[in-house]
Amino acid sequence: MTGNLTSDTAHRMINDGQLNVTDLFRHAGISHPVMQELRAMAMRRAEAKPDLFTHPKPRTDGASDNLRHKAATAGAGVDPMEIVSREIKLHSLPRVIIELQRAIDNPASSAEDLARIISLDPGLSVYLLRIANSALYSFPSRIDTVSRAVALLGTRQVSVLALGVSVLKSYNQRPVQLLNMEHFWRHSIACAILARAIAARSGRKDGERYFVAGLLHDLGRLAIFEAIPDMAREVLELAEAEHLQVVQAERKVLGFDHARLGAILLRKWNFPLNLALAVLHHHEPSRGEPRGEAAVVHLADILSKALGYGGTPVFFVQPLDSGVWESLGLAAEDLAGLEADLDARFDETLAMLGW
Length: 355
Prior knowledge:
- The chain is mostly helical.
- It has 2 domains: 211 residues, Orthogonal Bundle (Hypothetical protein af1432), CATH 1.10.3210.10; 83 residues, no CATH class.
- It is 65% helix and 0% strand.
- Helix 5 packs antiparallel against helix 6 and helix 13 packs across helix 14.
- The N terminus is likely disordered.
């Protein structure tokens, strides 16, 4: 179970993992049967895979004494649009994506048109062919060309995947202060896999748009940590000192949160509105369409954290938005199936997307 670890080290990691699970569910509440089962699953998982639940905490170095004052005053000087402008300049989408967006918006465009545009970018083509040949689809024969991938997956599905992958590639090329980028993308990829699996189990089509929504749901957090690292540090320190969810600390320190910032960024890049809304409302899906993508991403985000994939040094499982579980039409028994879906696809998807 624990490889070459000594017995004492293994027991310490297991105990630390279980303690972290207790802390992990501090804000979640366990009145809902689903959260009760999810907490029990997390405890079992912490015993089997303790390393997933032992994330290093940020160092505060005594800087938290004045955090309440900082939280009350700092956010007034932060303009989210300045961050958006900076990120758009720093991470301008490649020309092939701009051409792809134009083709998507043109009713006269064909599958062959989209395949030709995607093929202009060898890196993007490789990513999409990896995805098409992965366990996410399990096609009976190998997909060797972009045109065949487009024909099998559909133009809309491939275009959404291409947009998501282009953002992933852009941010993979730049380190971000304070964030362990491997942990960040492991959380994002876990959320993407789970969002697609939840969509499938709840009878939804176009699983790729849920996959990409899960993949990019925390894009705004990357932008915050990259653009204003000092204030991002204050966010983490406040979350650690006051046991807040990071999204709550963002609102206190910055005056806005990563969900809002990510949604603005996606719209500025001309991503589909439904994708931006999924990002905007993934912490509060009741503010959006009751059965929209945000509900799926909300649940996927909760599950990924509960199963040990947290994207920041401080993270908690958030409460399940009332009505989300019922609106998706899932049963408690589906939780084990979703965990199995994640474990079956995680390593391959991680490697497929460059991690």
